[in-house]
Amino acid sequence: MKNESFNTAEKDTKVLHAIAPNDLKGFSLYRQKMTDMVNYAIGPFFRDLFLKDVRGEYYSLLFDETEGNNRLKEMEVTVKYFSSKLMFFHLNSAVLGKVTADILLGKILEGLEAAKLPLDHLVMISRDGPKVNQSLERKMNSKLVRERGFQLVDTGSCPAHIIHNAVMYALKEFGIEVSELAKVVYYYFDVPSKWEEFEKSCKEKPKKLVKFVETRWVMLGNAAQVLLANIDELFALQAKLTHSERKQ
Predict the structure, then answer these.
(1) Tens place of pLDDT per residue across the chain (248 aa)
(2) Looking at 157, 177, 193, which one is the last position of a domain?
(3) How far is the C-alpha of 135 from the C-alpha of 103, rounded, in Å?
């Protein structure tokens, strides 16, 4: 099953019994069973895989506070790291009650200690801008300076926006032609009939184009790779269109 509610489990059981009644005698599936499988089997299994993978890598933390159903403040902490590709997973949740920088820092450190993640591999913290979060970062930096001799990488309150904007301006200076080409080609084939005609003209099935916009520059690499994979066919199409225009 993919992207299905656990509430469909009982209906799925009936469907499976209808498909293979002799092979699935005694088989049952229901919402609570699915929940328990995820919470106590599948979830812990994959969490352990992530933790074993990240312990040898440098990582960043992302956290945010929100108000839960019980009207108490809750904090969710996520780990991001690079291991052949960008990875992320949920580290822990914490019910806060009162929110202070010391409490936030304590909960984060508890989560790192429980997961056995080395503090000296922490690169940066991604957060929003309230003063309590700024105070938390200062306290974390003080602790890191004492223990490892240097602070976190500082790109401001939300590093994603700043880094995205920096790369966007760099593209305008050094590589705007690639990003413009990726957009022009994608939107040219946004008409289904044009893409179908292009597929028919190719000897091998072309790779599907990747949508790209400047504010999502991380996709430029993928978009450029697809363009390169289809480059001969795209040049052939350009020559065909140019020839047709000249005849007119």
Answers:
(1) 556 777 777 777 778 778 877 777 777 777 888 888 888 898 889 889 899 989 889 999 988 877 766 667 888 899 999 988 889 888 888 888 778 889 899 999 999 999 999 999 999 988 877 788 889 899 999 999 999 999 998 866 666 666 777 777 777 776 667 778 888 888 888 888 888 888 888 888 888 888 877 666 667 778 888 888 888 888 888 888 776 766 66
(2) 157
(3) 11
Count of residues making up the chain: 248
User: How far is the C-alpha of 185 from the C-alpha of 198, rounded, in Å?
Assistant: 12
pTM of the entire structure? Answer: 0.56
> Cβ distance 79 to 45 under 8 Å?
no
Give the span between the Cα atoms of 216 and 212, in whole angstroms: 7
Tokens of 169: 């301006």
Instruction: Tell me: do 94 and 28 sit in the same domain.
Output: no
Q: Which residues pair with 73 in a beta bridge?
A: 67
**Number of domains into which the chain is organized:** 3
Residue with tokens 């597929």: 199
